[in-house]
Specification:
4-stranded mixed β-sheet; 7 helices; alpha+beta; 4-stranded antiparallel β-sheet
Length: 223
């Protein structure tokens, strides 16, 4: 059974040699840079060689809602043939220096059509991405603040980048932006989890010291 994910990586790694053999442009994005111009639909598709990006929505109020994170070995944004109005309110920002293989939609279409294995993986990837939204829509809406945060921390812990250990390199502001909560709410709940010996916090991130205790506070669909 698929676990909801916020961090996507390695999903297209088996196709890296194939991508390299096809028409493409290799590009770099500096930390903090945007992968495409805000207010416009997606015009390019990227296979991430190194680095990571954060995908988020910009609300009319000026607040942002973090949707997902994307690391090496995956394709983002996903392949599609139509433009959607919602894309004009979305942005993807490099969290670190990034190297990508960039494809136009026609270039990726040619690969999608000629490679049944790739087309199957594109569908599978969208299934995983939709699973993440269904999880949040159906369950997180009804959970108390503490459980929402524990669910998120557990999923980030289970799907964190390799070699990061028990550390979750996210600020309180970023956690709040994912959950749609205030920073004060997140700070209060993190303080309670610290007192229970579940985690420790530091500058720019936190460390889960007891994954078992954290799991006990999560809902069943999360663990």
């Amino acid at each position: 059974m698929l676990m909801p994910r916020y961090y996507f990586a390695e999903d297209f790694r088996p196709f890296q040699d194939y991508f390299l053999s096809q028409p493409h442009t290799e590009k770099t994005f500096q930390k903090g840079g945007l992968l495409w111009e805000p207010g416009r639909p997606y015009e390019k598709i990227h296979y991430i060689l190194s680095g990571a990006a954060m995908h988020y929505a910009l609300h009319e109020s000026g607040r942002r809602k973090i949707i997902s994170f994307h690391g090496p070995g995956t394709v983002f944004p996903g392949y599609r043939q139509n433009d959607y109005r919602i894309e004009c309110t979305l942005a993807t920002q490099a969290l670190s220096d990034m190297r990508v293989l960039e494809f136009t939609v026609p270039q990726f279409t040619a690969m999608f059509v000629s490679s049944p294995a790739l087309s199957r993986q594109v569908v599978n990837w969208y299934s995983m991405y939709i699973n993440r939204f269904l999880y949040e829509t159906i369950h997180q809406e009804f959970n108390p603040t503490c459980i929402k945060l524990c669910n998120l921390l557990y999923l980030l812990l289970m799907n964190r980048p390799a070699a990061s250990g028990p550390a979750i390199g996210m600020t309180q502001e970023e956690l709040a932006d994912i959950l749609g909560m205030s920073r004060v709410q997140v700070s209060r709940e993190l303080s309670a989890l610290r007192k229970q010996g579940i985690l420790s916090t530091g500058r720019g991130g936190l460390t889960v010291t007891s994954p078992l205790k954290l799991a006990r506070l999560c809902t069943s669909e999360t663990v």
